[in-house]
Amino acid sequence: MAIDKILGHLHTYPPRYAPEWGSGGIFGLKYYRRVLYYTLAFEGEAHFIKDNYERIYRFEKVGKAPVSGGDTYNAAETVDEYLYFGGWIHTPAIYENRTINFKNKYSHVHVYNIENDSISLLWKDSIHHPTQWAGEVSDIIYDPYNDRLFICREDGDKNLGIYTLERKNGYATKLRDEPTLKGDILHDSIFFASGDNFLTGVTKLLSLDLVDKKWDVFSVEHAKAVDGEEIFMPSIGDVASLYNRFFVFTRGGILVGNPHNEENFRFIRLLDFFNFQAPMRTNVLYHNGGVLIPYNAHHDAVYQPRSIEDKIKSIFTNTISSPTLLLYVTPPMVKIVGVFGARITSIESLGDKILLATNTSPNVGAEDATPYDTGYRGFSILSQDIIHNSPPPVSFSIPLSTISMAKKELGQNIFGGLPLYGYKEARMLLYASRSNELKVYEYDLSLPINEALEDRFEIRPGKNFIDLSSFVGIVSFSLSKEDLNGRIKIELI
Fold first, then answer.
1. Can you say whether residue 116 is alpha, beta or left, with left for phi > 0 and alpha for psi between -120 and 50 degrees?
2. Each residue of 421-447: pLDDT tens digit?
3. Are residues 374 and 434 in the same domain?
4. Of 65, 123, 133, 58, whose CA–CA distance to 93 is shortest?
5. pTM here?
6. Is 335 exposed, middle or buried, given 0-12, 13-18 or 19+ CB atoms closer than 10 A?
């Protein structure tokens, strides 16, 4: 079979020369017209596989070798016989004094013609600065009404926002200045998620009517979750158009709504441990009318803190309370269907298989640059039956010092958001150093969004057992008092 021949080309990529910040990954997985595409970062290789044939493109149409980069946000789109892929590339890459010089960093969009196996550079952009860079291409969305491409640019210092590209000649037009990571079409409009992913998270959603060209802007800066509190720094992962609503998958939750139908955006809290677990540097996969989305345990991190601020960021980004979880979202349900290591960088379906790209290491900060990619990047091939099977066992370990610091410094106290669907047993062991009160909030992803229900449990010093098996849907938690020495362990079986 053609798919089996394609899968035979896939293998693990160990650390190899590619100057950048830590590890990239395998991005942009797209199976279309019997061709599998992906970009290997940070080596800067675009792969096109069909049957027994594999073509590797090393961005020579942008500039000279050695290259590094490629794509780290899954910017790929297909239209007719064309596959568009975007991102960013150093060409040539410059590594000096343990830092990266960005003067040769380009944002790019290429087009691959599947019928004649040809690649063309459609557009590129650079500001040629040693320490700053032009906004990376983080998403490409086809406009079927006006026959053009939208590109999103959030990660960078200059030339951020929303652009259109003409498919025939690559002519670019800037539409908005707001830093924007992702977008998708909903009914007769296209919605975009905007914000600073490493400072504020999503702050506004923008909507463009594709017919009359009218813009609407919806602030979500203080949107609350159904359990009553805001979500700290809801960094954008990916977005989806489902059930006539726009979904934004973020650090700590899912933002859902459609103000065009008088349904304001609301959060449900999801896998929020006041660390950096998030659906970042990965993608949504539309599947059987719902979506699969990974929530990655370790995607971006500070490797070696050099200041007090770095130390705080290091704790936030390197505290691991949960493995990477693959979720299947079919409102009102959110179901865990897979448990994985550090991160899943891309996901695609091939026939009766689901293909995951995986990585052992995160992207890191500017002062932690290395001359090679630091991760082991590979693939996992799953059966589509995972969405119907019983969920896998999973454990969570949550230090209460993190929760207590969030309560003290941020005024936020609610954490968790654990999907219980399909589990026969759910139990919490809470090791407390003082008397306390635990609140459990119970909710689901019913549409429109409903408020959470609440239960309370008395907590005594020492080991406390709480049976969560009587709860259904999703549960989050809060403690009435700070406990810097306590810990929570949760097992779902």
1. alpha
2. 999 999 999 999 999 999 999 999 999
3. no
4. 65
5. 0.98
6. buried
